[in-house]
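Problem 12. The chain below contains 959 residues. Write out its predicted structure in token notation.
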Amino acid sequence: MYKPSVKGGVFMTPGYTDKKDFFSFCNLNNRCSRIYAAVFICLLLSAGGLYLRFAWNRYQDIASSESISLAHSIASLLHIEHVSALTGTEKDLQKPEYIMTKLSLQKLVKTNDMIRFAYLMGNRNGSMIFLVDSEEPGTPEYSPPGEVYYEATDTDWLPFKSGSTVLTNAATDRWGRWVSALVPIKNPSTGKIIAVLGIDYPASEWYAGIRGHMIPDIIVVITLLFLFWALFRACGQHSILKELSEKLAFKEALYRSVFEQAPIGIAILNDRNLLSKSEYGEININPMFEQIIGRKNNELTSVKWTDITHHEDLQADLDKFEQFQAGEIESYSIEKRFLRPDGTSIWTNKKVAHLLGFNDKMPVHLCLLEDISVRKAAEEDLKESERSKSVLLSHLPGMAYRCKLDREWTMEYVSDGCLELTGYPPESLLNNKDISYNDLINPEYRGPLWNEWQKVLPVRMALKYEYEIITADGKKKWVLDLAEGNFDKHGKAETIEGIVIDISERKKIEDELRYNINHDRLTGLFNRYYFENLLNREIYEKNTCKMPLVGINLRTIQSLTTAYGFNYTQKLVKIIADELACYCMKNRLLFYTYDNRFLFYIKKYKDKKELLEFTDAVIDKLEHLLSAERVGGGIGIVEIEYEDGLDADKLLKKLLIASEKAISIADKNFYVNFFDKDMEREIIREQEIKLELSCMAADENDGGLFLQYQPILDLKSDRICGFEALARLNSKKLGLVPPLEFIPIAEKTRLIIPVGQKIIVNALLFLNKLNEKGFTSVSVSINVSAIQIMYDNFVENLLDIINKMHVNPENICIEITESAFSAEYEDINRVLGKLRKIGIHVAIDDLGTGYSSLARERELNIDCVKIDKYFIDKLLYIQPCNAITADIISMAHKMGHYVIAEGVEHEKQKQYLLNNGCEKIQGYLVSRPLYEDAAIEILIKQINTNNGYIQLHEGYGDS
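Solution.
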């Protein structure tokens, strides 16, 4: 190439310097000159033909090289493990490796206009077969896995035999005429060729492309021929030369315009330097190149392109450039990043080629630069999107889908998770090929699912719905459908997109939790929580039928734990539960509401006779199971009255009361007791007594608490020697409440501690009154509960009260029942010992009715034994010689105790006791319990009479 110039309107070429020489050359008229001219033209034509032939071969080599490079690049992108997994059979169609490889080939064909087919070939029994191709199933060009390629030639077999890449000449097969690039794919570990990647270019387009590349060369040759023809033709024609000169000037201007306005960067390079000026001209770097690099022309002359190349891309570019300089490749293209002055980088597609026509003294080359930043960003976004989508779908415990809005839910897209979720491959559901999605839905959910969609679509809401599907193997799975509709511009739903997630495990856990919430873990029976919910449903449904509750209270079984252990008791309860479950029916439910308590909930019974027949059957079963264990229980029955409400807590409380009462009054292993109004009144009364006791404990004036005093007669002197302080409760609402009723309640609620404190203080106040009246030897007995004795610092508190009130401890007697020693014997006995050390007398009350043994009786820290009224009453009906009361008195004396007999009402009893050495008595024979003033008056009158007992008995009995 050379740069033409215009001088004085005459076209000038190297070798001709003035007009005279030029016209001399043009005016050749002799025959010799014509021959030389003809020879020169022939040589010129031959050179042009050779040049075009050379250019054709070169462009064909370039196209072949680029095709082979492209094929190698594609082959390197294929996963060897995916290719190895292909067997060339129909089973490949369901393999993820086949699907991913096919998608890659289809993407290749779509993104490259020149490539028409892409495929993988294999060798099976000497025949060349298709493993996978880029065509859609159902098209004429589609080749299923395993189809034999009968048109295979020796050239096609060459990659399998030699292991080298082959670019075939144009060949014709059943699909057309092609130029193919065949790349062998080898197993890296064994080196064995496992497949051949084929890329087909239509022969017509292949050669058309080469011809397209030839157009500039043809134009150059034709132009040169035309120029020489024009030279000979235009000799002497100044006007024609002038016109040609103007045309050349125009072409130069056009060249400049195209160079400067080209949408790609153009620069001339000398090795690694960019040339801004050279002997060939000044237009060596165009404005687009400056814009892409971010540097001006003068800045580019001071840097090398290696200095402004991103370090991650530099080595790859240098490798290619060295091959280019060494002549191994004619040109190369690479995607790389250039660094801008502001530190940012820009992605470019760089193409480097030799600049034709330059001499070897200055090996410059052409660099074309294309800004591909936008494309790269799009590719990265697409890659990230595809990666995210792939990660999401691969970890999704279900499948993604897109379907039509019809009753069959016709699928247009189904993800690979379909196989694991439903047992069917995705293609089986596409367009209802083998089965529709509606067929997979459990029939009972098909209608509700459709109705749910009709609700959410008009308001453009998303669907969240749970239902069951039936898999290919007949199993049922719970799924969660999360989807929303796709709408056209008119707002009409066209398709539905969403995901179906397998929630079978979650449902299983929910069922287990629901079972555990509603059932007792030991027995497997319904629990109290389920019973309460059932009653709530009865209220909601306004069920007014007759519904009794039958409660079985087996709390006495707990005594077996001490003897045999906890596990033994639990196993026994489980056996009982299994046996009672046999009585369950549709209208008879069994519950385990509390430890060792069962409950039958019965609907629609006739009368109490039917209930008793049922409980008799249950008792027979329980007695058979528990007879060997020698334990029993109580059965309580509560007949529910709908108008009274269905409060589970109150009903269970009534049932417990009825069953506990059944246990308390049972004269055999089991007893049945109906809860009635009287029992309910007893409960209400007990609650009112508890409230009264609470108010009494908090009242400084003692509320309704007061004391009465029953005289104790000394038989030897026949005179009153002391009083027993008896607590009384006068309720404003209930009236007088007997001690046998409110004292146990006080003990059960532990209100006995503050109430007992008040009783002690009032008794000691009475004792002080006696001292003031001069009765310093009269004592007062105070009943004390075991709960009081075991309370912290009982002795210290009592001693503190005694000291503050200045009472003589020897005039105080503390009475405690014999039954109190059945538990915590040693602790109670130790406290009693402390009381005796400070001078207080201690008496055992109700001797003979408790649980103490004779061995322990001797060890007790007591002074007195009080014989229970039970033994005194016997003296009226049996012969004195047969009564054991005398033996009790004798035994007490041998243990060093004095004796007080309680409940003496007849002279015969008194005489017997006197004859057998009993020291003291109390009872109606002496006097009824008295108020303070009456008690003091008795003592005063006793002083003024010789026979105080008769006077007392006759004059001061208090009902």
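Discussion. Residues 1-29, 947-959 have pLDDT under 50 and may be disordered. Students who got a different answer should revisit the alignment rule from Section 12.3.
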